Amino acid sequence: ILLAQGLLPSNKGHGYVLRKLMRRFLETVWSSLGKPTPINELIQRLSHAFESHGCAVGVSEYTNVADKITEEETALLNILQQAEQIIRQHPDASPQILHDTYGISKMLMTLVQQNQHNKKGGES
Question: Whole domain around residue 98: which residue ranges?
Fold first, then answer.
């Protein structure tokens, strides 16, 4: 809804809050699924749910919203890859240091660990 109203994710003010909300949403979805998964299908389902509650958006707004969510998803995937490298380089670092120094959330750390476990399981 915020994206449809023109608020964009950014590093300042309300845009920063929106970015944090979007990333937390993506982390939660990915954690519940056990891996990063493209979010486009879920966006389509949510847009239908909003329409049924009288919050319909036009095609151009939907496309803009989907594009912005995809951009944040891509940025978060890049952070996830960086987090995997950092955790590999510093396997004994405490979660607090990883968060304070690199901004890696506890949920993202859990997702990295799940991915590493899945990769090891696939190699056996």
Answer: 13-123
Give a yes or no: residue 101 inside a domain. Answer: yes
Alpha carbon separation from 67 to 34, 62, 73 (Å, rounded): 24, 8, 10
Whole-angstrom distance, CA of residue 112 vs CA of residue 42: 22
pTM, rounded to two decimals: 0.73
Burial environment of residue 124 by CB neighbours within 10 A (0 to 12, 13 to 18, 19 or more): exposed
Q: Is residue 4 part of a domain?
A: no
Give the number of other Cβ atoms within 10 Å of residue 9's Cβ. 21
28-71 pLDDT, tens digit per residue, is 988 888 888 888 777 777 777 777 766 665 555 667 778 888 99
Please give the tally of structural domains in the chain.
1
